[in-house]
Amino acid sequence: MEKSESKTRILRFFWGVFPWLIVMAILVFIGVMYFNIKDEKARLDKAKKEALKTEVPAVKVITLTLKAKRLEDKINLPAEIEPYENLWVKAEVSGQILDVLVKEGQTVRKGQVLVELDDRDYITRLERIEANYSLAMLDQDRVAKLVKGKIYAATELDNIEARLKDLTAQLKEAKLAISRTRITAPISGRLNEIKAKKGDWMGANKPVAQILQFEKVKVTVGVPESDVAAVFDLKEANIIIEALEGRRVKGRKLFLSRQPRTLARLYDLELVVPNPDGHILPGMFARVELVRHVYDNAISIPLYAVITRGDDRFVYVEKGNKAEKRSIELGMLIGWQVHVKSGLNPGERVIIVGHRLLDEGQKVDIIKNVTDPQEILKS
To answer: The pTM is what?
Structure first.
């Protein structure tokens, strides 16, 4: 009876722990399989790398030998060409136009007579004033003798002398009015337009002719508020004139406005440009290159040579006929090239063609090495 109970207890014990034994066995099996799979994966990866090293042929690439050079951070802004002087000559006195002595398009010099007005009324007035002046002079002599003889009071002489001063001023005014009937050019330049017509009546302060000076011209460009600091110490700038087949000229700084002219917060910068041949015409469109910052001994590479993965930007450098991954820090973009602030050194050869087919350590076959990316286009 006791033996039977003992067997029963043993069977119950085994039946109680048996499921746990099964679970433990399964866990052990899974653990063993996991480590086997991990080892196998590592072995396969290693074999794959070895296969790449031994079986994959070298990738044909083009490299760029890096050189330190000067880089300029530029902005290119639209500009307008204006004459250096744009002056409307106006009549200072009124009168009928007797003669127009110049033609539109003609070059005139300062002081040259452009238009003559009828001066007869002004001459008549001058003659009347001169007659009154002569009479006042005689009165002055006669009254001075009478005052000396105490026949007239001294106040009579004072009145005559005051009258003489007034007549003297009238004489100057009359002569000046006559001189103004000959309308002259206040500056030298080219006559762009003439409004005066022979026989017309010309009123005072009416426009007579427009004179333009463009032996030198002004180029006006609106500089954004964010770039004003870059032009405070500016002395000259490059100007491109598209209408003259992209002609490039130098402009000397003339003036920088201290107040924006529009709600767009643009500050006017005026540049003066020599124009001895007269080919640069007012109203032409131009573009002004302004240098914001200069980097000496800087390194730049083509933008397309940079590979971006997430936040990482890198290139491949050729080292011993193998591709070496190199993380870089980028700066400003200049056209299609980018400034490399760190990560590369002069003399190194960066892979710029074929780099997107590479992995770290992969063999490369350099079919061409250049010192300027433009050389690729010539090949």
So the answer is: 0.62
